[in-house]
Amino acid sequence: DGSWRCLPLLKPLHITEARWVKRFFIGNLEAEIGGGIPFSGKEAHYLRAQIARISASTSVAPTDYYELSEEEDEEENPLGILKSESYEPKSVMEMLAEGLEAWVHYKPAILDQGRCSPMQEGEEDEEEEQEEVEDEENEEEEGSEIFEAKEEVEVPKLRSLSEDEAIGKLQPWNVKLSSKIAQKVSIMILQSNLWPGAFTFYDGKAFDHIYIGFGYKFSTYHYGPTIPIVFQKEYETGSDILETEDIEIEDEPPEEAEEEGDNEGEEPEEENEDEEDEGEGEEDEDD
Question: Residue ranges under compositional bias (Acidic residues) (predicted)?
Answer without folding.
Answer: 121-145
